[in-house]
Amino acid sequence: MPIYLDCNATTPLEPEVGEVVRGFLQDEYGNEGSRTHEFGARAKQAVQKARDQVAAVVGGTRDEVLFTSGATEANNLAIFGLVDHGLAASRRHVVTTTIEHKAVLEPFQELARRGFELTVVPAESDGRVCPQAVAEAVRPDTLLVSVMASNNETGARQPIAEIASVLNGKDTFFHTDAAQAFGKEIEMLRHPRIDLLSLSGHKIYGPKGIGVLIARRRGYAKPPLKPLMFGGGQERGLRPGTLPVALIAGLGAAADMAAKHATERRAKCKATKAKALEAFMPLGPRIHGPADDTQDHVLNIAFPGLDSEALMVALKGEVAVSNGSACTSSSYTPSHVLKAMGLTDDEANEAVRFSWCHLTPEVDWIRLADRIRELMS
User: For a surface tag, which of 95, 108, 228, 249 has the fewest beta carbons within 10 Å of its beta carbon?
Assistant: First the structure.
């Protein structure tokens, strides 16, 4: 089997998390909403424990945790859930950036079709957004600013704390898609000015199909969200439906482990990146993303003259890699993130993303580099 190097698309399941999920699927299968027996009571306890575990990672509280099916749904709830408030307050301007995941860009584009005014702040050539550019885009009628925490394609960390700080004193809500940063960039996401934060379980070695929207209180006030679906009243009326207790418990366990082991996991990923770069640099590659502020488990790289599709096919038996977001991989179009950084179509089509984790087995990077050198000759 090839070595899996596509952890930004989805991570492997942490073995201990898998045991938690299986236990609640097979043994503790009660409905969290059942109030008349112990099965329901134990399920409710598991859900509350998971809320505490997730909230602790970002310095929040359990009542700020809303379970969703993943970051995509959480993003949609954060964006569309504020629409009624925006209309009532005559605040119909929203701000995002050119490097966002499509789960943020497309909802904002839909808002624009519904009559909201959309400002899309351009990224700089290293794939980061300038905090001052975001600040200059904000107006008195700006309802929401959304900037991702870390980019899924390049691994570029965004200046979330700086953006949060420039929004101090403004009524504008601040949302971050933290799918790639939650449990990995701990301090970044604890800034109290972040009002809304989205995450997915399957990006932190937890199960697929579960995520969270953190809706932080500002003082005593919660973000004025409205539900997108109706029927049942679960999750404080914002997300109806029977809670998937097994997935929630798994996400809680994964969040808890991510916080406890963040330093050692990051050190292992950093060592892996150093080995990869040492092997690849003699090939004269282009590396996409800031040299000093890219996550340690991601390497977006291009080998001149070598198309990414051809490279992935050639390496298929040795490593599993990608050339962009898994959510748009079927479109075979140049990455909008790399295009936003100023790359041409041809340059973007040469880019390959390697992403690994603490569970990744040892990679023979020298062998990979030799194989790529053969393809380049």
Answer: 228
Q: Where are the alpha helices (DSSP H) in the chain?
A: 15-26, 38-57, 71-80, 83-88, 102-113, 131-137, 160-166, 245-260, 262-280, 308-314, 336-340, 345-348, 365-376
pLDDT tens digits for 73-85?
999 999 999 999 9
327 is an active site residue? yes
Rounded to two decimals, the pTM is: 0.96
Q: Is 214 helix (H, G, I), strand (E, B) or coil?
A: strand
- Tokens 């001052």, residue? 132
Point out the catalytic residue in the list 130, 269, 327, 357. 327
Q: According to the CATH classification, is domain 3-11+262-376 in 3.90.1150.10?
A: yes
Q: Could you please report the per-residue DSSP string of 222-240?
A: PP----SS-SS-TGGGTS-
**Sign of the four-CA dihedral 72, 236, 210, 33:** negative
| Of 156, 148, 164, 125, nearest in space to 74 by CA | 148
Token representation of residue 340: 């936003």
How far apart are the C-alpha atoms of 301 and 280, rounded to whole Å?
9
CB 327 within 8 A of CB 102: yes
Give the pLDDT band (50/70/90) at residue 262: very high
> Which listed CATH number (3.40.950.10, 3.40.640.10, 1.10.10.10, 3.30.465.10) goes with 15-260?
3.40.640.10
- pLDDT value at position 377? 83
Which DSSP state fits 37?
S
| Token pair recorded at residue 51 | 């809320």
Gap between the Cα atoms of 168 and 18, Å rounded: 41
Domain ranges (residues) in the chain: 3-11+262-376, 15-260
Helices and strands in the chain, H and E counts: 13, 12
Residues 312 and 278: their CA atoms lie apart, in Å, by 20
Question: Three-class SS of residue 197?
Answer: strand
